Amino acid sequence: MKLWLCSSAVLVSLTLLSGCGGGGTSGGSTPNTGTTPGTGTTTPTTPNWVAGQYAAESTLQNFCAAPRTGTDPFSGAAYPDKAGTAMHEKLWQRSWSNRTYLWYKELPDLDPANYSTLAYFDLLKSGNKTDSGAQKDNFHFYQDTAEYKKQTQSAVSSGYGIEWIFASTRPPRQLSVAYTEPGSPAATASLGRGSKLLEVDGVDFVNDNTQDGVNKLNAALFPAKAGESHQFTFADANGVRRSYTLVSADVSTVPVHNVKVLQSGNKKVGYLQFNTHIAAAQPQLISAVEQFRTAAVNELVVDLRYNGGGLLALASQFGYMVSGPNQIQSRYFDKLQFNDKYPTTDPETGQPLQPTPFYPERIDYNVGALLKGQTLPNLSLNRIFVLTTDNTCSASEAFINALRGVDVEVIQIGGKTCGKPYGFYPTDNCGTTYFTIQFSGSNAKGFGDYADGFTPAVAPRFAADIKGCPVADDLSKPLGDAQEGMLKTALFYAGNNSCPVLTAAQQAAAQQATLAAAPLQSDGLAIRDPRQQEFLQQNLLRTEIRD
């Protein structure tokens, strides 16, 4: 029996269906080959674009303008690249998108000759909007394959260990520290939550509007490798100006922080900060749940405010650990739907579509297999609190939606979530890993319409409204502090079954938190859009779990 799920931490070799890609021969029939003069290398003839005709992907994939050579250090296999052209790469993107993109009928059919390879991919997405007027597809990305595998397979990335909060990417810019990874350069330097960036390597971060200055800012904020030294000046949460020398390092992501049991009146409340759904979180979540069981907690607060997603299977496991089999009663976690070319089968594997269950056992994410006999602990709760912001995305939203689908009462504290009931297979071609929306998900009650996000509401009116309290993210207190705004509100609600009365200023901030996040403005003098820099956390990716 095959069980299909989404995964950002496990990469599997996916065999594309033979003959896929639609009709037409121009630009995609098996290319003729010839020998490049002076090289002895056989290269295919450059294919041509013909409007409305889509070549089979197999005739285009791995034909690269700059083929990699040698062995992939992550898989141990030789790179599949063959000598090709940029037109091969662009026409592969086009055929792949036409076959698998969820809204393929909304794709423009543009001549690739007019665009660079990556610029062309940027255009292969729907231009339509949601009911609220937001862009329908905000999750169309690509990443260097080596960097992607480094982040997903080892949970390591080069940087300072800072989770940033971006408010503005162009002058007057605003960038604050949300938290730091334990043991990272930023944590070692005691860089505190809520610190606002003022200056980088002598460049005024807030106001500099020169190309040279912006280049320096980008180079320092997003170091290409470990060992880079840069000077940063911040104003801490109290407004005190502080300077730091930070040296980039390969930083390991710690998915679960601040596991603790708090006393609220006569109730014991478990709290954990859950930052990303990667395989490394599995033992940490199990440990946290076992700690909460030993303490006999009455309530649970899951802090998802900076959790952009990842492994759907892990979200499923955590859903089981929260609710347990008596609450779930054999209902499924999530059901996926692909485009209308594939109503009953998975377009990448050809396997019949089956709902993702609430996985009750540990999973070996290295091989994608359930570990029979290793049953997960559970808390048997029928109510939980989730702390959210617009950075709460994808698998985190699926977790919320799935629990609601099995009648767990979810109380939402914070702000509107990002709105991503979608996912995709990461697909590598010629050293770039591409992500295009390929499926949507719904819970056991058939609900998945939250493209504009889940919104906390004292009196819910719409299907994507969740009972709870709008609260702004409180950067003045450490995460896990009982006096931090969101957690304090959750603890109050746990004891009183209602939201606390807010001051006028708190009400205004809370109202702002429930509004859809404005698109980050970007132009030639803007620092990099962090939604592209940190898109990896917003992925629901697919792999196979063996029962």
Automatic annotation (TrEMBL):
Residues 23-46 are annotated as: Disordered. The keyword Transmembrane does not apply. It comes from the Bacteria. Residues 1-18 form the signal peptide. SUPFAM superfamilies: ClpP/crotonase (SSF52096), PDZ domain-like (SSF50156). Residues 268-420 form the Tail specific protease domain. InterPro entries: ClpP/crotonase-like_dom_sf (IPR029045), PDZ_sf (IPR036034), Tail-specific_protease (IPR005151). Residues 28-46 have a biased composition (Low complexity). Keywords: Signal. This is S41 family peptidase.
